[in-house]
Write a structure and sequence with these properties.
298 residues
């Protein structure tokens, strides 16, 4: 393996310089270059967008897939680029049980045939629910995931790089100040103070240029958050359309089932006895008990 020794030494020196600069800043012994207010506002908006987008995606997925085990399983399959397993919804499982019970009790009986009818509708509701989950993932959660894994990660990466450039810049500023303080003093380590100052100022110009360039790159990315908000708004509108369509389909299925059940012939097994028919006062099932007042003489 070909090692670039000079680069390794240079990177190690830069890392040490950054650690020293950060330590001095925290101790209050070194100045820190502050970014302008507009940049800070852009970064705050981006960071707020990231935090709320993560929460919205997490909560939406919790509503769509309440089982946390299934959510973890889907996440793993997504990371290894494999197709998610096809699962029946709870409504579909309920529908299957109703159909099996109806066949067991007898499709020719009122209860058995009704169980089968209701079970078939529950299966349709479950399939409708699965379609809704899939459409919501496609129009809402997946685009937001893509934003977090793509654009937002790039912004954070460039912002972190800007912080490193800022530390390098401030370290160069400190070296320039120290070199200026040495002017007029005896030569140290065989290097005149003027030479040290000249080298420190050249390093400062390079560091300032790299910092300004990185700040501009990061600023352009941060300004793109407004475009992301517009994209997320479209995703939200599509979510509303998908959810509205889902509930309309559910209402249609239940209305059809209710109409179908109401048209079924009413047999004696369907009708419930009225309370006045069961507890008739003259019924032979009850004995008349004389009422005796405690005030009556024996």
């Amino acid at each position: 393996m070909d090692f670039n020794v000079k680069k390794i030494v240079k990177d190690a020196g830069a890392a040490i310089s950054r650690v020293v600069q950060l330590t001095e800043e925290r101790l209050g012994t070194s100045e820190k270059t502050e970014l302008d207010a507009h940049f800070e506002n852009l970064w705050e908006r981006a960071d707020t967008t990231r935090a709320w987008t993560e929460k919205l995606v997490r909560n939406t997925e919790s509503v769509l897939i309440p089982n946390p085990g299934f959510r973890i399983e889907d996440f793993i399959y997504e990371k290894i680029d494999k197709k998610r397993p096809s699962r029946l919804s709870n409504l579909e499982y309920l529908g299957l049980d109703m159909i099996e019970a109806g066949n067991e009790f007898g499709p020719g009986t009122a209860y058995g045939s009704t169980l089968i009818k209701v079970g078939l509708t529950e299966q349709k509701l479950g399939q409708t629910e699965r379609d809704f989950i899939g459409s919501t993932a496609a129009c809402f959660t997946q685009p937001l995931h893509k934003f977090l894994d793509g654009e937002m990660k790039t912004i954070i990466k460039e912002k972190n790089l800007l912080e490193l450039k800022r530390l390098d810049l401030d370290a160069c500023k400190n070296r320039v100040r120290k070199a200026r303080n040495l002017l007029g003093t005896p030569i140290k380590d065989g290097v005149p103070p003027e030479v040290l100052l000249d080298q420190a100022e050249r390093d400062l110009r390079v560091a300032q240029s790299e910092f300004d360039r990185q700040a501009e790159i990061t600023k352009l990315l941060l300004e793109g958050i407004g475009t992301s908000h517009a994209s997320h708004l479209r995703c939200l509108m599509e979510l509303v359309e998908s959810q509205s369509r889902y509930y309309e389909q559910c209402v249609a299925l239940m209305s059809e089932l209710k109409q179908d059940l109401s048209s079924m012939p009413k047999s004696e097994t369907h009708s419930r006895p009225k309370i006045e028919d069961v507890y008739k006062p003259n019924s032979s099932r009850f004995h008349t008990i004389p009422i005796i007042s405690i005030d009556d003489p024996e």
